[in-house]
Amino acid sequence: KQEVTQIPAALSVPEGENLVLNCSFTDSAIYNLQWFRQDPGKGLTSLLLIQSSQREQTSGRLNASLDKSSGRSTLYIAASQPGDSATYLCAVINSGGSNYKLTFGKGTLLTVNP
Amino acid sequence: GAVVSQHPSWVICKSGTSVKIECRSLDFQATTMFWYRQFPKQSLMLMATSNEGSKATYEQGVEKDKFLINHASLTLSTLTVTSAHPEDSSFYICSARIPPRGVGDYTFGSGTRLTVV
Fold first, then answer.
1. Interface of B with A in 33-52 (CB under 8 A)
2. What does the pLDDT read at residue A41?
3. C-alpha Rg value of chain B to the nearest Å
């Protein structure tokens, strides 16, 4: 059974700092990995999707890397802003099956202080 | 584009009553919908997968007679929590795959906060 772990559970940084969020998964037979953002009491917004054959994806100040063999992914946020404050969730889709279900980590609660 | 509208955003109900949550795909046809439950400081846990026109597939440990899922059309899926109890209080979120884009392209509803008193 796939298990996804995110470290740290919470992180508080001053504005402008670069930061790294970590995600690990136990079963490396994944189809892809996604990073999401969740604001309090809201749904999820997809940030980056990395296919299993890719090593990284970038969008603006965000960069996500994937090391499938070691079961790890990192989300790098450059020049953090207070608006980046949210919970960041990592999720994987395992290969096989017809519905491609997502398995989520518990998330990292990020607070960027002005 | 590819928006899923989820209603209600929050609901309070008395123990023993039933509550229905709706998810509508506004600008695409959602052949598959996923229903998740999220407890405070926990990850999203998949409850069931519904495919239009067929019975939902429930994850292990989820009571299908308690959480009724209907996906009668390509744009609407509903989750009914029957005979709700306080332990059913949680945040429920639906999700749909976005066709014809690749696997893993999902859109999420805004969630429903259910409080059973």
1. 34, 41-46, 49, 51
2. 83
3. 14
Q: Is the peptide bond before B8 cis (omega within 30 degrees of 0)?
A: yes
The interface residues of chain B toward chain A in range 50-109, judged by CB-CB distance below 8 A, are 51, 57, 91, 93, 95, 97, 102-109
Q: Write out the H or E segment, with its range, that includes residue B48.
A: strand B45-51
User: Residue A82 pLDDT more than 80?
Assistant: yes
User: Residue A16: which residues within 8 A CB-CB, separation 6 or more?
Assistant: A79, A80
pLDDT digits (tens, 9 = 90+) for A48-74: 999 999 999 999 999 999 999 999 999
Q: How far is it, in rounded angstroms, from Cα B88 to Cα A101?
A: 23
Residue A46 tokens, joined: 């997809």
* Nearest chain B residue (CA) to A109: B41
| Cα(A76)–Cα(A88) distance, integer angstroms | 11
Proportion of chain B above pLDDT 90, given as a percent: 68
- Residue A30: its H or E element: strand A30-38
DSSP labels for B6-45?
A: EE-SEEEE-TT--EEEEEEESSS--SEEEEEEE-TTS--E
